[in-house]
């Protein structure tokens, strides 16, 4: 009886891992083809828009960001640009003030309270029908805002998510290449989810909502995940536009990506708890399937992996499970080797891919534990290192998870 129970637990864990990474993409592909949501209409009327830029100690990039914002292919009389400074102390605010004559508004938090508190403050300065959220290091393609807002001509659309890509240097190659492979799956899932029903979550670098749908945030909330959930609960849908592109700089190490992902998962898990109605199947069934499969079950993958290893060890006497132990152990040894050689610029994929897989799942585990224990921080740190201004960064289509 004990052996049977252990075997059931092993196979349940294996099935869940396979479902998250293989089964759900296949299922979504089938559903998106056979049951596509009617496409949102693309409007030509340009609404009034506010671009909210969140910044904390971004002196190195803020000038480029503001010049980029001013050069967007959108009528200046319809675009309000607001920079939210989370009590920056490195000269960021002084640089923003230099652009005041060009209509850029600075909103400064007198003390550091975090991005969400800053967004609450910045929304008081928002004007128009649509608000676009961005980061200080997110460089938009000229037509990005125009593409985002075009989808709001459809009254069913509550939020629109753009495509964030990474600008990487050779120093960051291993981390960014791993993230890039991971993000290819993420981008594909977002497109299919958008076609099928609603894309799950936003992207703090580039996403837009109807201003009337904004709900003030708690300091530990993650705006680009909680706001979309709250909008879904109110009966709207979310759209992903792959051609609304911005570029960001990748983290320059696996460790920094790890810390970022822990923070994202912990706050995203907390967001689901803050908007529990999204877990009601009958509310929006298509979004429910995407949310549970793409996010909730994936956050729990490390638990399935631990269970699969432990049960196979306990079933060592069975020949099949001996093989399972050897295969799992070999995979984790490759991941350990990837960790040992992570600083190398030519680390083979057979090492850094297992390492990256283990890394993101450890981040998920830490993030879930942090959310359940209430260990959430409202503030953030940039993940970028200083580099010479003349150092070029080749572009690769990748992105960041939300």
CATH class of the domain at 49-259 reads Alpha Beta
* Main sheet attributes: strand count, strand direction, barrel closure: 9 strands, mixed
Question: Kindly, what is the distance between the CA atoms of the first and last residues, rounded to a whole number of angstroms?
Answer: 42 Å
Uncertain stretches: 384-402
Task: Please name the CATH topology of the domain at 49-259.
Answer: Spore Coat Polysaccharide Biosynthesis Protein SpsA, Chain A
Fraction in helix: 40-55%
Kindly provide the radius of gyration, computed on alpha-carbon positions and rounded to a whole number of angstroms: 22 Å
- The chain-level mean pLDDT equals 85
Dominant shape: globular
Q: How much of the residues is beta strand, in percent?
A: 5-15%
Strands, count: 9
Order of helices and strands: HEHEHEHEEHEHEHEHHHHHE
**The CATH fourth-level homologous superfamily of the domain at 49-259:** Spore Coat Polysaccharide Biosynthesis Protein SpsA, Chain A
Task: Please state the second-level CATH architecture of the domain at 49-259.
Answer: Alpha-Beta Complex
H/I helix tally: 12
Broad structural category: alpha/beta
């Amino acid at each position: 009886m004990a052996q049977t129970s252990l075997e059931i637990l092993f196979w349940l864990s294996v099935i869940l891992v396979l479902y998250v990474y293989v089964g759900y993409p296949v299922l979504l592909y089938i559903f998106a083809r056979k049951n596509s949501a009617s496409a949102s209409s693309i409007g030509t009327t340009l609404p009034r828009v506010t671009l909210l830029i969140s910044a904390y100690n971004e002196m190195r990039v803020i000038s480029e960001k503001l010049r980029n914002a001013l050069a967007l292919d959108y009528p200046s009389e319809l675009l309000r640009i607001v920079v939210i400074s989370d009590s920056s102390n490195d000269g960021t605010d002084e640089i923003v003030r230099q652009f005041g004559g060009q209509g850029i508004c600075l909103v400064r938090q007198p003390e550091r309270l975090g991005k969400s508190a800053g967004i609450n403050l910045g929304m008081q300065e928002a004007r128009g029908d649509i608000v676009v959220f961005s980061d200080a290091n997110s460089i938009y393609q000229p037509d990005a805002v125009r593409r985002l807002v075009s989808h709001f001509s459809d009254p069913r659309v509550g939020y629109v998510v753009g495509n964030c890509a990474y600008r990487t240097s050779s120093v960051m190659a291993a981390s960014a290449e791993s993230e890039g492979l991971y993000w290819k799956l993420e981008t594909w899932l977002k497109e299919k989810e958008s076609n099928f029903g609603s894309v799950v979550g936003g992207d703090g670098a580039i996403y837009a909502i109807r201003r009337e749908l904004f709900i003030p945030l708690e300091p530990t909330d993650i705006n680009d995940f909680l706001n979309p959930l709250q909008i879904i609960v109110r009966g709207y849908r979310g759209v992903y536009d792959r051609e609304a592109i911005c570029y960001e700089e990748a983290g320059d190490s696996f460790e920094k990506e790890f810390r970022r992902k822990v923070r994202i998962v912990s706050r995203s898990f907390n967001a689901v708890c803050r908007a529990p109605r999204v877990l009601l199947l009958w509310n929006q069934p298509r979004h429910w399937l995407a949310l549970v499969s793409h996010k909730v079950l994936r956050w729990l993958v490390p638990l399935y992996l631990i269970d699969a290893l432990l049960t196979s060890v306990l079933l060592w006497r069975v020949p099949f499970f001996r093989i399972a132990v050897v295969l799992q152990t070999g995979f984790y040894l490759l991941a350990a080797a990837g960790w040992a050689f992570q600083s190398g610029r030519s680390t083979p994929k057979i090492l850094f891919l297992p390492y990256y897989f283990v890394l993101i799942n450890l981040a998920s585990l830490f993030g879930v534990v942090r959310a359940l224990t209430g260990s959430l921080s409202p503030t953030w740190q940039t993940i970028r290192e200083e580099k010479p201004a003349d150092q070029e960064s080749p572009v690769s289509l990748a992105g960041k998870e939300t």
